[in-house]
């Protein structure tokens, strides 16, 4: 890592715009603005209480409901501090930067884990696994966690987080609309095929858009999907010397295609459409196709979704690179400033265990079970019966090339973002530039020029370029 980069992590995270889903995670979750505290040991007397800072998405709400079972088993209370994503990251950064010990555990996105670990804000987990007795170690079965997820949550120093749920990217489509048009979705479609199908399916007079794509500016919104598209088009953000690649033909081609797809067959207001808005369009029957986070499969199958029995699934589209997809999701990590590390590790392993997944499935429905983390989940007949998206989700995660995201060699990891702290600032600004291009207020050439100049300046400031 370049000199001075770790020193910039704190400042970068404090001013960053949140990845509205993926996110670090790719699901785009946005939450209420008020902090909410709730203890799993309410009304119970515990020997120890740990503080867990978390986002308020449906999976974490289920965790909060099940936490009293952990307290009954261990006598350890769990105090949940529920925050919106941007406030969560800012408060965590402030707390761990000061070594305050305010939080013992936190939900953390895939993007942050290696940076925060290398900055010694997260407790390395390998020593705690080594201290486990043989029976507990066997019951937890660390080898059951999918290897691509483990790699994404590790750095050279070891493992720093455990996945609560993990995701990649996939294609969701309306089987009934395809049948009515005489169309067939390939298991592994190309972007050119997606464009052709989207144009045929686009019927704005009937309130149906051919495809929904994130257009809302942000490193975790339009840039999250675009970065994956860029890589499969044969492009890259940087060469091996960290020179930005906005002048490359692949970059230009990917940007032009993204705009063409949205303009000819996409949603009417792309600059205000992010993950949540696309999910709403798809679940209310107003979109024929959607390329986004695999975790959405459970949401489209549950709740008040109007398309529960009408959704088909395929791998995310490709172009030149034969795979497409990122590794994202929410994980749990232990703060180095925690004063209750042993108790925190017990909850960390309890809430990411096979036993916990079975509790969720039995009490809340198997389609709601945490996805994308354990091999055993995808061998469980109850989960497979309740989750028709399971096989494509598994294939999508295994298909995502976290270590080598581009066709050409690149100095970064992850196909959904660039794995350096500065990318949040770069991705946000380029996302705004892309938004202006989508809206027609800036030409493509001007967008590329402005993005190149901005990125060069940031990379010089970070010590990557002279």
From TrEMBL:
Signal peptide positions (record): 1-20
Keywords in alphabetical order: Signal
CDD domains tied to this protein: PBP2_TMBP_like
Pfam families cross-referenced by the UniProt entry: SBP_bac_1
Chain intervals with Low complexity compositional bias: 28-39
Region (Disordered), start-end ranges: 25-46
Keyword Nucleotide-binding: no
Top-rank taxon: Bacteria
Entries under InterPro entries matching the protein: Bact_solute-bd_prot1 (IPR050490), SBP (IPR006059)
Cited PANTHER family: ARABINOSE-BINDING PROTEIN-RELATED, DIACETYLCHITOBIOSE BINDING PROTEIN DASA
Protein name from the UniProt record: Sugar ABC transporter substrate-binding protein
């Amino acid at each position: 890592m370049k000199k001075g980069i770790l020193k910039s992590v704190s400042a970068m995270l404090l001013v960053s715009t949140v990845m509205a889903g993926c996110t670090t995670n790719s699901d785009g979750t946005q939450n209420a603005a008020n902090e909410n505290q709730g203890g799993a040991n309410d009304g119970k007397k515990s020997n120890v209480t740990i503080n867990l800072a978390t986002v308020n998405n449906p999976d974490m709400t289920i965790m909060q409901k099940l936490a009293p079972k952990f307290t009954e088993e261990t006598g350890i209370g769990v105090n949940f501090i529920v925050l919106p994503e941007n406030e969560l990251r800012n408060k965590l950064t402030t707390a761990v930067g000061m070594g305050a010990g305010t939080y013992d555990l936190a939900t953390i996105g895939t993007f942050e884990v290696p940076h925060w670990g290398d900055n010694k804000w997260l407790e390395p987990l390998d020593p705690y696994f080594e201290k486990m007795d043989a029976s507990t170690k066997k019951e937890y079965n660390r080898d059951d966690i999918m290897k691509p997820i483990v790699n994404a949550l590790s750095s050279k120093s070891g493992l720093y987080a455990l996945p609560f749920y993990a995701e990649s990217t996939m294609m969701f489509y309306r089987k009934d609309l395809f049948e009515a048009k005489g169309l067939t979705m390939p298991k592994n479609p190309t972007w050119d095929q997606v464009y052709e199908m989207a144009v045929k399916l686009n019927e704005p007079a009937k309130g149906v858009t051919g495809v929904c794509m994130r257009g809302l500016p942000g490193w975790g919104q339009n840039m999250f999907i675009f970065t994956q598209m860029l890589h499969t088009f044969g492009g890259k953000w940087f060469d091996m010397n960290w020179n930005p690649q906005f002048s490359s033909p692949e970059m230009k081609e990917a940007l032009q295609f993204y705009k063409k797809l949205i303009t000819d067959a996409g949603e009417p207001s792309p600059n205000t459409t992010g993950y949540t808005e696309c999910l709403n369009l798809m679940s209310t029957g107003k979109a024929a196709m959607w390329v986004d986070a695999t975790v959405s499969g459970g949401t489209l199958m549950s709740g008040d979704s109007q398309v529960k029995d009408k959704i088909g699934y395929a791998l995310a589209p490709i172009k030149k690179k034969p795979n497409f997809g990122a590794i994202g999701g929410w994980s749990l990590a232990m703060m180095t400033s925690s004063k209750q590390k042993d108790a925190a590790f017990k909850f960390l392993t309890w809430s990411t265990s096979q036993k916990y997944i079975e509790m969720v499935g039995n009490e809340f429905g198997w389609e709601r079970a945490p996805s994308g983390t354990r091999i055993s989940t995808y061998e469980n007949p109850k989960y497979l019966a309740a989750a028709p998206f399971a096989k494509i989700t598994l294939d999508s995660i295994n298909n995502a090339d976290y270590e080598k995201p581009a066709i050409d060699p690149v100095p970064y990891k992850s196909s959904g973002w660039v794995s350096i702290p500065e990318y949040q600032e770069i991705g946000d600004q380029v996302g705004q530039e892309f938004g202006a291009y989508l809206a027609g207020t800036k030409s493509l050439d001007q967008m590329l020029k402005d993005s190149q100049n901005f990125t060069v300046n940031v990379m010089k400031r970070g010590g990557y370029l002279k």
